[in-house]
Amino acid sequence: MAVDASWVRSWLDRSAAMIAENRQELIRLDREIGDGDHGENMDRGFQAATSKIADAADDANPADLLKLVASTLISTVGGAAGPLYGTAFLKAAGAVSGKDSLEPADIVDLLTAARDGIVLRGKAEVGDKTMVDAWSLAVDAAADAANAGADVASVLAEAARAAEEGAAATEPLVARKGRASYLGERAIGHRDPGAQSTALVLRVAADTAKDSA
């Protein structure tokens, strides 16, 4: 089983709906350790990306769509999330450039490039209490699944599961990056909002692939 541009379109449409549904929760998480705008910014950015995707050419390939999402997020999402998510989608696009369909190994390449883009832009590492904690576990789980012979849907399912675990694992951490780092130990017990939005977006990616299988 492989996925194509129709998966990317559905993934983004459903991600926008998921972010909208969880907007207030993301705002709450960010208010506890940040400036409280993550949910609002993500909602605005993904709604704008959905609109752009709807206007994309019918023959656009996955990389074309991912690149369009990247530029839209960078231009519409405020705070740190815009550059981070925008870079993630831009690097993901580069990893699958020229491909009309994506196999398990391509999904791993896409996720790895997205994670590496976030690390490059944000200078964060695993354990810093950022979205990298979710992305890195997702990449490792996806790679393990692909190496074991899993199909695309299963690779994405493992990535989503690991991202959810990574998001939860940020709760006991002291933040070392971003606005939350100013809180010191007061950030302990609070989940990183970027890690949570990562888990939401990757869960939708997995569910979309499963539904299209």
Task: Report the span from N to C terminus.
Answer: 7 Å
* Percent helix range: 55-70%
CATH class: Mainly Alpha
Q: What structural category do the secondary elements indicate? A: mainly alpha
**Element order: H for helix, E for strand:** EHHHHHEHHHH
Mean of all residue-level pLDDT scores: 94
Give the radius of gyration.
16 Å
Number of strands: 2
Within CATH, the superfamily carries the name DhaL domain
In percent terms, what proportion of residues is strand? under 5%
Task: Label the CATH architecture.
Answer: Alpha Horseshoe
- What count of domains describes the coordinates? 1
Identify low-pLDDT runs: none
* Backbone shape: globular
CATH topology: Serine Threonine Protein Phosphatase 5, Tetratricopeptide repeat
Pfam families: Dak2
GO cellular component, one term: cytosol
Keywords: Kinase, Transferase
Protein name: Dihydroxyacetone kinase DhaL subunit
Q: Describe it for me?
A:
This protein is mostly helical and 213 residues long. It has one domain: Serine Threonine Protein Phosphatase 5, Tetratricopeptide repeat. Helices cover 69% and strands 2% of the residues. It is built from 9 helices and 2 strands, in the order βαααααβαααα. It has helices at 5-21, 23-33, 38-54, 62-76, 81-95, 104-122, 132-147, 152-169, 193-211, and strands at residues 3-4, 101-102. Strands 1-2 form a two-stranded antiparallel ribbon. Helix 1 packs antiparallel against helix 3 (38-54) and helix 7 (132-147) runs parallel beside helix 9 (193-211). The longest helix is centred in the middle third of the chain and has 19 residues, at 104-122. 57% of the residues are buried. GO terms for molecular function: glycerone kinase activity. Residues 6-207 form the DhaL domain. One of its GO terms (cellular component) is cytosol. One of its GO terms (biological process) is glycerol catabolic process. This is Dihydroxyacetone kinase DhaL subunit.
